[in-house]
Amino acid sequence: MSKASLVARFEQIFGRPPALVTRAPGRIEFIGNHTDYNGGTVLGASIDRGVAVAVAPRADGARNFHSTYTGKTVTLPAAGEPAKQTGEASWANYPLGVLAALPHFGLRAPEGFDYLADSDLPTGAGLSSSAAIELASALAFLGLTGQAPDRETVVKVGKHAENHFVGVPCGILDQGVSGFGEAGRLVFIDCAGPRFATVPMPAGASFWIFNTHTKHALVDGLYAARHRECMAAAAALGVGLLVEVSPEALRAAEAKVEPTAFKRARHVVEEIARVDACVKALEAGDLGAVGALLTASHRSSQHLFQNSTPELDFLVDTLAAAPGVFGARLTGGGFGGAVMALAGPGFGAAGAEAVAAAYAAKFGARPDVLPMGVGPGASVL
Ligand code: GLA
Known about the structure:
The chain is an alpha+beta fold.
C-alpha cells in the first residue's frame, strides 16, 4: 500500500495521523547459501516489495500493534519486559523482539505508541518478510525516540530480535541486505566483520521468483539442525567457524568429520568460494559464468546441504534449460519456499508461464510467478 493509503488506514484505526512512516524491503539471497552464520561471504538483493510501518506516540503507556494481515490490534503494556506472543498475535514478536533488543545496543525503547504494519511481500517464499518487519520497526521506534545509530547497529538490532526473541539462529544476511540495499545494486556482506558493500546489478539481467507455496512443517527446526551440524563440523576441524577452512584443507581433513557434517561443511566452504567467484564474474560482466555459479549453488544445496525439495529441484531443472535464463537456485533457508532465476531479455512472461505450466502439470498447483526489481534499502519515508 502507498504511504498515503497507510496514513489513511492508520487514521481510520487510531483516530489520528502517524508521527512517522518507515519501510524496509524483503530480499533475494543471490548466492551464499547458509554461509552467513559460518562467517562467510554472501550476495543479496533488496527487492521492490517490503513492509511499511506507521507509528505515533501515546501518553498512557499502552502499546497497540495492528497488522493489516490479521486486521486485529494487540494491546500490551509498555511497562516490564516484552512478553512473547503466541497464536494469531505471534506476528507481533518481530516488533516486540526489536523493543527487547534496543537496550542491548545502548538504545532506548519508546514507551506507549500506536503501531500499524502492512506488507506487500509474499510470506513463506523465503524473501524474508521477518527481516523487513524488524528493520521497519527498528527505524520507527528509533524515530519515535529521536535516536539515530549507524546503519550497522540498526541491522544488528534486527538480527538480535530474530536470534533472541523470535528464536531463529539466523546469520546477518536478511537484515544486512534489507538495511544496506540500494536500487540497482547487489549487497555484498563479509559476515565475519561484518563488512557491507554493494556491487552493480549487471545490465540486461532481471530476477524472477517462482514461489511454490510449499513449506516443510519443521522448517525452523531443520534450519537450527543445519546450524548445529555446521558448528559440529567446525569443532571437529578445530576451528571456530567454517570460513576458516579452505576447500582443499577440508578435503584433506575428511576423516576427522562425521560424514553428514562433512557434506554440510563441504557445501559451506565451496559456497563461500562460489560467492567470491561470482563477485569476480559480476565485475567482468560475465553473466554466463554468474548463472553457472547460481545453478551450481543449487546443486550443492540439493545434494550436500540437503535443504532443497523435489518442487524446488524441478523448477531449477526447468529454468536452467529455459532459453534466456542464466541460472537458477533456491533462495533463502530452503526446505520449501521459492526459486530465483537470473534471466536476460530473452526470457519474459511467456517463458515464465511455460515454466509455471510445466510445474502445475507435475505437482497439480501453480507456483506464483513474480518478476522482481531491485529497490532501495530500509528508510524513513
Ligand atoms: C535464512 C536466514 C539467513 C541465511 C539463509 C540461508 O534466510 O535467515 O540468515 O542463513 O537462511 O543462507
